[in-house]
Amino acid sequence: MAASTLMTMLRLAHGVLEFLVKQREEEVLAFAHGHTTLAFISASQPVETSAPPPSRPMESSARPPETVPLPAVNPAPAKRSSGRTKPTIDEQKAAETAEALRRCETESDGLGHLNRVAKNNEDRKLIAQALNIEGAGGLSKAKLIEHILRHAIGARRTFDGLSSW
C-alpha cells in the first residue's frame, strides 16, 4: 500500500473516531452492533449541526465499557524492489530488432515494431545498446523510444536525403 494511501486511510479513521466520540453512547453501541450505519454527505450540501447532548453521568450500576488492549503488531518490512524489471528479449533478439528498425521507412512503422517486440524499458535499453546509443540507461521511456527511433530511422533518412544532393 502506498504511503499516501495509508495516510489517507489513517486520516479517515481519525475522522470517524472523532465523530464517534461526539455521539451518545447508545448510538455508538447501536453502530458497533450493526444496527445503524454511517453515511457520507457532500461537503457542498449545507448540514444542520446541533451540539451533541451533554453526556449523562454513568449510573452506579452501569459498568464502564471494557477496553481490551490490542496486541502490539510489528509490521513486516516492506519489500523493496530494485525498480528494474528483467528484459524479455535476449541480445540476439535486440540486434535483430535493431536491424528491423533500420529497415523501417517511417518512425510510426518503427514505433509499431518496437512496441510489438519491446515489452518493458529493459528491452528498449537492450535495443538501444544494439544500436550503439550511449547513455540510454538513464532515459525515461518516452525519451528512450524517441532516441531509438531517431537513431535507427531518422538518421538513415537524413543521410539518404543528404546523399541525393
Average per-residue pLDDT, rounded, comes to 77
Give the count of helical stretches: 6
- Rg for CA atoms: 32 Å
Largest β-sheet summary: none
Proportion of residues in extended strands: under 5%
N-to-C SSE string, H for helix and E for strand? HHHHHH
Q: What can you tell me about this protein's structure?
A:
With 165 residues, this protein is mainly α. Among the domains are: 3-32; 91-163, no CATH class. The protein has six helices and no strands. It has helices at residues 3-21, 25-32, 91-103, 107-117, 121-130, 141-163. Residues 43-91 are annotated as: Disordered.
Produce a short descriptive summary.
The chain is built from 6 helices and no strands. With 165 residues, it is mainly alpha-helical.
Structure keywords:
165 residues; single chain; mainly alpha
List the helices and strands and how they pair.
Elements: H1 3-21, H2 25-32, H3 91-103, H4 107-117, H5 121-130, H6 141-163
Region (Disordered): 43-91
